[in-house]
Specification:
Shape: globular
Strand order of the largest sheet: 1-2-3-6-4-5
Distance between the termini: 16 Å
Strand content: 25-35%
Radius of gyration: 14 Å
Number of helices: 2
Order of helices and strands: EEEHEHEE
Largest sheet: 6 strands, mixed
Structural class: alpha+beta
Length: 128
C-alpha cells in the first residue's frame, strides 16, 4: 500500500497551504481509495455554493482518475439544516447513480464565515 497526499496542479487548489486536497491510498492491485478534503465554494445562496462544491469535487476526482460515480461516502456540513432539501436537490443533479453512504450535520459555522455548506468525500477507484 502506498499513500500520497497532494494538490495536483491540474485540479482546483486548496484555499490554504496548510492541508492537502486529496489523500490517495494505492493498493497493490492498482485500485485506490481517495479521501477528498472538505470543499466550500463561493456563491450568494446555498444552491450556488453547493453547485460550486460539486464542480470542484468532480475536478479533484477527475484529476485522480475517478468520478462522482466512484464516491462511496459523503459527509456534508450545513450551517442551516432546515435547507437540507435545497442542498439535496443540487446533490441529486451530480450524484445520479446508487447513492453513497452519507452523513449530514448542522454546524454553527464553517471555517469561512460566508460558507453555508462544506462537503468531503471518499471514492473507491478500481484498478485500471
Amino acid at each position: 500500500m502506498q499513500i500520497s497526499l497532494d494538490n495536483l496542479a491540474s485540479a482546483p487548489q486548496p484555499l490554504s497551504p496548510y492541508y492537502s486536497q486529496v489523500a490517495r491510498v494505492e493498493h497493490a492491485d492498482g485500485s485506490a481509495l481517495l479521501f477528498v478534503s472538505g470543499q466550500i465554494a463561493e456563491g450568494a445562496t446555498l444552491t450556488e455554493q453547493t453547485r460550486g462544491v460539486f464542480e470542484t469535487l468532480t475536478a479533484l476526482l477527475r484529476a485522480h482518475g475517478a468520478g462522482l460515480a466512484d464516491v462511496v461516502n459523503i459527509r456534508t456540513y450545513l450551517t442551516d439544516i432546515s435547507k437540507l432539501d435545497e442542498y439535496g436537490a443540487v446533490r441529486r443533479e451530480f450524484l445520479t447513480g446508487t447513492p453513497p453512504t452519507s452523513m449530514t450535520f448542522e454546524a454553527a459555522r464553517l471555517f469561512r464565515p460566508e460558507a453555508l455548506v462544506e462537503v468531503e468525500v471518499v471514492a473507491a477507484v478500481p484498478a485500471r
